Amino acid sequence: MVATAVYFGSAEFIASALRSSGAPLLVLGQTIIPAVPTPLIKAAIAVFGTHDKLALVITILIVGVMVGGLIGWFNADSQSSALVLFAGLGLLPVVLVLISGGSATDVLPGLGGVILGIGIYVGLTHLGGGRRSVGDAGEQPPARPDRRLFLTLAGLCAALGVAGVALGRSAAVLARSAAGALTNLVLPAPATSAPEVPAGAELRVPGLAPLITGNDDFYRIDTLLVPPVVDASAWSLRIHGMVEREVRISMAELLELPLEEHRVSLTCVSNPVGGDLVGTAKWLGYPVRELLARARPTADADMVLSHSDDGFTASTPLEVLSDDRAALVVVGMNDASLPREHGFPARLVVPGLYGYVSATKWVTELEVTRFADKQAYWTRRGWSSHGPVLVASRIDVPRAGARISAGDGGGVVIAGMAWAQHTGIEKVEVRIDNGDWQSAQLSEELTVDIWRQWRHEFAGVGPGTHTATVRATDRRGKVQISARRPAIPGSATGLHDRQFSVE
Ligand SMILES: Nc1nc2c(c(=O)[nH]1)N[C@H]1C(S)=C(S)[C@@H](COP(=O)(O)O)O[C@H]1N2
Ligand SMILES: [Mo]
Q: For the whole model, what pTM was predicted?
């Protein structure tokens, strides 16, 4: 187990020193992700939320160390077979790297880890008195090994291994941003700016989410352990498939075009009821509609399969990308170039659809095709091929389990967010303890593509524990679905409620 910890830790360390993507934890993790069965993905997202990948890495580490322990246990009599098994499994990530066309520096972490692991194993078993003696009764028992020294050294090595993992992972993530690629853009001024948010457009309730989410606070969902480094100067977007004319556009060409600014809320289909996998930014980009018009899709096409640099795909209805909504090839997020985790140098944002069928990050290709012919990444894994956003709402205030003192006359403020991108929010209603639904005050509607804040003050709320519940209605008159339903194949439904107590 100690040797395996050293294997992972030292490999991690070598990988960060060499800025290599060959760290075994990363390679194994990235190999496993596409193969994880849907129910397990669902469970992992439910339990770990956006920490699902950290959970995966830790799981691989724990399972790996246990496998190492089993190898040692079952081969206590034969050091050589233990070493062969250890080396064989330890080199598996190296083989995976080679298969996927990795470079020499991607091979070194696994290789170095195996060598160091073997060294530690041999050293420690030697110190620990070697293998159990078998059937050599009559011989003198070996000199009593120094148990304390053994345990001390073993503990130290294990700790070093784990520290290597911790250091290597964070160091690797940090090192990536400085790999010499063009990772920041000087953005041109928009040809069409989003109007300023009028003063007073926000409801000032402490604890309520702001209308515009900061880039650092924006939720992140993708299938990658480490977001890719895409060189903006080498990037291009190719529009091909069922088109009359194939189009390719470089970043320099894209930045020359009249770019538009639009505020749009983005939601993940995996957002649980009341969850925070939703955010709003001011995006700078160029309408997909204009690029498609250059390529001229053929009449029988009905879908655009957007491809990412990392192999992810999303299926978006062609008509959604052709109508007048702000479906954009985005290069800027809240006045900055896209952060690497959010798709640098370019991504898609489409009002009205969940991210998994529209918001491809690190986008490189728009393939015009048909739903009958092609399936996207999550559709192959059980999610619906079309992902229109359902009207939803959430309570932010009071916090779960909060103890509040009621204001004069038992006044209690409940506040939160509601969204129905591209349809708009018509009304939000709140109730306490299954009382009558009461209409909440809404923040000004800036566009139908972003969420709205809401607040309502209840009077005469007595001391004790209470539950507040919220429901929203969209501008087509659709009331938020109250039946609890899990996130596959559409999106989780149900009304958000929150318990609090009044003192
Ligand atoms: N390349 C790539 N793009 C992707 C994904 C992905 O896994 N890979 N996930 C999608 C999903 S499911 C969502 S909800 C949004 C999230 O975008 P964000 O991470 O910028 O919030 O990105 C979408 N774009
Ligand atoms: Mo998502």
A: 0.80
